[in-house]
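Ticket #4471: structure export looks truncated?
Reporter: QA, pipeline team
Priority: medium

Steps to reproduce: submit the single chain below to the structure queue and open the exported record.
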Amino acid sequence: ELLETALRAVLASGDDYTISAKPQIDWDDAEAREALIDSRAHDAFACLALLDGRVLDAAVAEAAELLAKVVGQDLEQTDDGTFRIARRVAPDRVISTVDPDARHGHKTASRGFDGYQGHVAVAPDSEIITDTVVSAGNAGDASVAADLIDDLVRDDDNHDEADDDEAPTVYGDSAYGTGEFLDHLANNDIEARCRTQRPTAAGGMFTKDRFDVDLDNDTVTCPGEVRVSIRRGGDGDGVAHFGDACATCPMRPRCTNAEGGRTIRVNRLERRLADARAQQQDPDWVADYRATRPKVERKLGHLMRRRHGGRRARVRGRPKVDADFNLLAAAHNLARLAALGLRFSVGGGWTAAT
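Actual output as written to the record:
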């Protein structure tokens, strides 16, 4: 009660936040809206200043952290000290105060959504869902890929016993064909059938694969036969700068319009990516991938198609959404097992039709 009294004492907006309804202003009046934003911002910063350094219980600390995130990402201060909505996009932006785990996401460049992403692993032959993970809407598919296939990773204690077994194979679209995930698969003796995108360039200019990347000597040679060294950063990623060589190059209009010349970025796992792209040229690799992917896409369609399916989250918070999505997958697995002929017989237990 003492903390609540102290917090209310620093509020200056006028309505004392006594009701949860929208403030009673003329929402068509731009000046009234701007004045409201400024007054709410000053109240927020005053509350944060009061709470700074205090020992808070978990609920108040969580609320203060959320308040700090929202005002930090959504507001900016003008030269005259007035606060307004920021003219920028904040990274990892909190989009909801009632569901702080939700994020903006993009299915395509032009199609967005708010909330979460559901990821599934499916056994292609049986079409049984083996694992699910729910991430924030802005998380990349590959960021949770290792969690989806942790059942395929062999324990060191059992590795020798399983050496004679056929290596498992993981299939995935181009969202999973990152260097990090390909490296994870290779380090765990898992065969990769994940597509790796070919390089692209805007405006029909030279793509990265027109450049000769020599990883043994850490150099890059451009189509104009200019060779430069790769400058590596602390994380192992590198950049090849062609700089002044582009100024007089007759191929410049087809290569770059950057004032400083063309640059080529070289991933620390560039060799993994190059090997993966080479494997994808194998007709057998392509045939196997094309025969398997439709089974997984069909299962995703099953999860999404019903009114209470995976298209909409029915609860708030990533842990609850994750549990709900897992339950949905379990229900679909029961339906699939029934379709496969799973039956229970007294004394015989569960058996599947052959």
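Status: closed, not a bug. The export was complete when the record was re-opened. Leaving a note from the reviewer for reference: The mean pLDDT is 89.
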